[in-house]
Give the backbone structure.
Amino acid sequence: MTSFPILSSPIKVGSLNLRNRMMTTSMSPGHGYVTNEGVPTQRLLNYLEERAAGGTALICQTIAFYPRIATEHLHPLPLGFADEHIPYLRAMAERVQKHGGLIIGQPYAVHDWKPTPDADEEYWGPSTKTISKLIPKPMTKEHIETFKKNVAQCAVTLQKAGWDGVEVMAGVGGIMNRFMSPATNDRTDEYGGSLENRCRLTVEVMQEIKKACGQDFTILVRWSPVDFIKGSLEMEESLKIVTILEKAGAAMHNLAPGWHETSVPLTTKDIKDGYWSWVSEKIKTVATVSVTTAYRNTDPDVMEDILQKKKADIIGGLRYNIADPEFANKVVEGRPEDINRCICCCRCLDDVISQGKPLNYCGVNPHLGEELDKPLITKTNKAKKVMVIGSGPGGFSAAVTAARRGHQVTIYERGPRVGGCLVMSTIFSPIYDRLNTYYKTILKKHREIKVVLNTTVTPALVQSVKPDAVVVAIGGHPVDLDVPGAGGGNVIKSHDFLEMLNGKPPQKPGLFNKIMWNCGSVFLKFFYTPDLARSFMAKFPWPLGKRIAIIGGGLPGCELGKEMMHHDRNLVIIDDHKKIGHDVGGSDRFHITSAFKKSPNVTLEPLTKVKEITNQGVKVIHQDGSEVFYTVDTVAITLGFDQNMDLASSLKNKVKELYVVGDCINPARMADATKAGYLAASQI
């Protein structure tokens, strides 16, 4: 009996029967998934099949509806507008449909377009009116006719290839959305002015599809009722758009808050799960067809609650499906504890959207990119005794993968609890505890994975255990600061917290420090929870005082600063890079640094070096040679990590197989460690 009765239940959308209420929003996983000629690779076919087999009811795939030159774009798309494209489009559909899933295509009408095959791709819109530095090229009526026929021809091609429907992209600031919005449409003809006129292009595109494909061919519409663009659509107008789209044949409203140009955070971990369901709830007050809520849907309990409260009919999303392809099956089967939940680290968005890289990394799921070219788990012919040293993301990923392959695995952790760096990270990013919880569930259900806590591994211990393979995943060395006063009692390093949580108090000068660090270590060793630690830091001026200098404006410093800013601390963030947040992912960087800049309690000091630390504060020197002294209570050093190869080096030539993963060999982000652990275990 499932604990998610509505989320697991079927629903009819147009002529389609969805087996449950979970669908993916449109996706473009990038190079490696699609060739430069616009042909889907085996990798994309495997990606789609993995998720269809995992129970996803409906998969939406972006399609190029005109001769789009893949080499000129960060995100290559499958071509889908001519009969020559039908064979590989049919292969995509078959991979999904053979598992009971449905697939629809979304002609990608977001940024560029070209009216003829030999024309250059350009930024098109209703007029030159713009909300960004990009000036659209106004579409004439002849261009509009060509555009409509292009989209309809794509729909015809998909229909011939056996696809189940088409989604019209009229949101996120795309071409049709720019026609809809008064912020970007100042036309005076029948495509501008009134709301009906501004919606005319989208309506006529839908009519053209119906005319070409028949009335029963299902059309979904992706649009943005709330876009956070000054002078654009208001909810009052959007409620009227609902009726306009339904009269034109929309079988579903797939809602996407915001435009790509929107500065409001939409998908980051600071946005609560299900937050955007308030938009779908409003639209449902007038809609007569299904309404899908999208963005920040990663928790099945929240998803079910949204449906129970009739805020939406279907849950759309992509990241929850990237993180765990079997998400839907686990929901339907009533196994939510087995879901490898998205931690909203945004690595997928940062790579694919911000940098034009392929979808190779996820904070919790290593089976992406090249790994999709191979089976998920290859059983070993010879079980080996595997020793995994360290229980952070890299170590756990290696341990779980090795165990699933049939090896005998023991994890060694020097602290009193599993999780490694996650134990500390979850204080500042509570959602990261999802990964730790997932691994703990695996340990409970797979007793064959042994865990040894409170044990510092030495070469002598390894030799006594006599493993066939060793995976070293002990994390990196925190980068130190070599200036006068860096060893003072008011100085805290990133690993000081972790050591305290592990019951090993850092040695600090001063009687008060010794008492507090020792008492804190004893208490937290036995009673630690991330919420407790976070609450302690918020309420007590120790170990982080009221005034804090954060040395290091990269990701660790920004995470600390963001948390402390919420607790009314006065902060100065110092870094020698040009920008604070220099290594923070693109999805978070703007929002974090903007919050810092807007806060009266935060001072940012980029291009600045620390000269000296005293009991009263920190002296810094700017690039122009000027010096400033900041009076603070605490100096927090958050300069990231260096390699930590001491243990690995001591084990060379002493074990049959040696693998080194994570920050100890390659200080990077969580997804890199997760992938490295998986790859190492796949080789054992």
User: Anything to note?
Assistant: The mean pLDDT is 93. The radius of gyration is 27 Å. The CA atoms of residues 252 and 290 lie 5 Å apart.
